[in-house]
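Deliverable D4.2, example record:
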Amino acid sequence: MHCFSFDIETVPDVEFGRRLWDLDGVSDEEVATVMTFKQLQKSGREFLPLQQHRIVAISVALRTGGTFRVWSLGDEDSDEAELVRRFFDGIDRYTPDLVSWNGGGFDLPVLHYRALKHGVQAPRYWETGGSDRDFKWNNYLSRFHSRHTDLMDVIAGYQPRAGASLEQIAVLLGLPGKLGMSGDKVWGKYLEGGLREIRDYCETDVLNTWLVFLRFELMRGNLDEKGLARENELVRSTLKSMDKPHFNEFLKAWAD
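Output generated by the structure prediction step:
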């Protein structure tokens, strides 16, 4: 079985905002300010509607066979279309089980909009049983199917008022959490040219999500204590072998 834990990071789609509100000649930063101000006026919140987000990073943790890997799709020069295409190509290739934190409420809908924009085909992802009967009862799109486990949604018993942040659940379980970075800092970091730091942050979010998932697997009886320890050690040894600063920081925080 292949299992993908995934996460995306986004910034305001200033190209969209510039066209929608006729802001030719206005800087990206100022366009984003207009977008968030208009959203604040409309809803009382600055968080943009999902169709106004542009993806700048997609990170994945892959558990398959006896191996574990974590990385960000593409490279720092990859455009959004390539990132989105690589994500859905991975689903077409592996048909993995997907694991996310709020992926059903944010990450996947944003990926839908961006795939629609860039003409990215994803037939395996959109399969619901027409070509493969197995997908009639277990597909990526149904909230209650297991090909995609949105941990935030499932653990909250599908009750929005019971939802919690990944940061707080990570802290609850003694995991590293955000390590000084958070989603609301991504736009500012992006304007500074800090895409590498954004990708690193996205990878640590994927790790937190995966480690929460392992505890979920213990809770529902798919792992025992020895199995959990074995899976955690696989993650630790993988990160140690990669010897990257953000993974070393993650390991140190995990040990403390």
